[in-house]
Amino acid sequence: MKFRKRYILYTLALGYLLFAHSCMTLRTSPKEAKAFFAEQGVAYKDTSISVRDQTIHYIETGNARGHNLVFVHGSPGSWDAWKNYLIDSTLLKEYRIIAVDRPGFGYSDFRKSQDLTTQAQILNDFLTVKTNGQPITLIGHSYGGPLIVKMALDQPELHQNLLILAGALDPKAEKPEKWRKPLRWFPFKYLVPGALRPSNDELWWLKKELWDMQPELPYLTQNVHIIHGKLDKLVPYSNVGYMQESFTNVESLTVVTLEEENHFIVWTREDLVKEAIISVTK
Questions:
Q1: Which CATH number covers residue 272?
Q2: Domain total for the chain?
Q3: Least confident range of 7-11, 49-53, 148-152, 155-159
Q4: Pairing with 228, which of 19, 117, 244, 273 sits 20 to 30 Å away (CA)?
């Protein structure tokens, strides 16, 4: 009887570990991506390359010789957050469109957590390898907001424009939930399912990283376009005022305030985001 109970317990534990590693991946499989782009009639590349001993997976569409649009998703997430931008007929004609799986997400060393600085280094090296000699515009949503700012600070010569969508830049506005910390300890971290594990880690680290980045912000020089909803409960609107106060040396700064929008403007206001992309790159 004791052996049977122990066997059942071990079986349940193993079953949960398999669930934790296989479920909540929040990513689109290559087969699903192929079907999606085939249905839309859009040519695409589904590729991974090695950068700093890390695997970076990305999807590319559009004009290979065009101005580069680089889309950086939030936490958690993957390239497919930007699916509708990758197939937009207007963008496809003029721009080279790249949507990455950030380190730790999608098919970029899945579940291997990296901090903000390391991710910026990896993605900058990735873009250095992928250069086509044309300008780069970075588009970042949520966690992708501070990440593209860090990328631009670290290699200002590489990036021309930043489009920050509901970006989390203000360290005072970050309130890391205390329950996240024990989920980073052994063995509990192995119980966190799928993409939630790297997400939990990077969101726990973010507040300190934003404080560390604060002294660098006056050195940001690119064109910056910010879109943020006033009803955003995940990344408070106070981030906008913080960025306006901190970005003192940017070439230009545009803020679009959406009175009735929440955090998910990437999907609810695609029209506005696409207009902003075209505006900031002209």
A1: 3.40.50.1820
A2: 1
A3: 7-11
A4: 117
Give the integer Cα–Cα distance in Å for 196 and 25.
8
Pick from 23, 22, 39, 19: nearest CA to 31:
39
Short-list 195, 201, 16, CA closest to 113: 201
Question: Three-class SS of residue 127?
Answer: helix
Its pTM stands at 0.91
For residues 171 and 207, the answer to whether their CB atoms sit within 8 Å is yes
CB proximity list for 147: less than 8 A, separation 6 or greater: 72, 102, 116, 119, 120, 123, 140
Distances (CA, A) of 116 to 19, 95, 140, 148, 274: 28, 27, 13, 10, 26
> Letter for the amino acid at 266?
V
What does the alpha-carbon distance between residue 196 and residue 221 come to, in Å, rounded to a whole number? 34
pLDDT tens digits, residue range 158-195? 999 999 999 999 999 998 777 677 767 666 676 788 88
- Tens of pLDDT, residue by residue over 6-25, are 444 434 343 444 444 555 78
State the amino acid at position 143 in one-letter form.
Y
Compute CA distances 133 → 128, 154, 162, 177, 278, whole Å. Answer: 10, 19, 18, 43, 19
Predicted confidence (pLDDT) per residue in 191-222, tens digit: 788 888 999 999 999 999 999 999 999 999 99
- pLDDT of amino acid 14: 39
Distance of CA 261 to the CA centre of its chain: 20
Range of the domain at 157: 2-280
